[in-house]
């Protein structure tokens, strides 16, 4: 039987604030509670950098604007912490990534393999960012995948719809938080 883990990705206050959806965090809390209740590990993934952003290349269009800016995603700043409404419980793993995919520049693969996890349940912000990038890489690494469509957010509702209805089903099961939680 596959060992699942729920990935909660880029749900940091600085990110959540850019995506106004009052129902998102309560839905995510439900998924987290269901996972914990079923003994499924919850693994948090945050984006963060060292002070001075030495990991960011001037060629990286996504992150190059951080260089020389205030260190809001550097070190242990509050911006690198998981949103307090869905904060990790004691002992839960928090992985720091350096790019869009949860695997890029992190030890996520090592954590998953050490835990003998072979089925990832994906949530996070944004659907077209961390969720898409992580799904693609995880599929190439032969993980079984589930996406909680309402456990993901995107600034463009149409992009979210196309990804969750047309793209993701080619590599993952796509379901809702309620349906996933009920099946546990």
TrEMBL record:
<dbReference type="Pfam" id="PF00857">
    <property type="entry name" value="Isochorismatase"/>
</dbReference>
<protein>
    <submittedName>
        <fullName>Cysteine hydrolase</fullName>
    </submittedName>
</protein>
<keyword id="KW-0378">Hydrolase</keyword>
<dbReference type="GO" id="GO:0016787">
    <property type="term" value="F:hydrolase activity"/>
</dbReference>
<dbReference type="InterPro" id="IPR036380">
    <property type="entry name" value="Isochorismatase-like_sf"/>
</dbReference>
<feature type="domain" description="Isochorismatase-like">
    <location>
        <begin position="5"/>
        <end position="179"/>
    </location>
</feature>
<dbReference type="InterPro" id="IPR050272">
    <property type="entry name" value="Isochorismatase-like_hydrls"/>
</dbReference>
<dbReference type="InterPro" id="IPR000868">
    <property type="entry name" value="Isochorismatase-like_dom"/>
</dbReference>
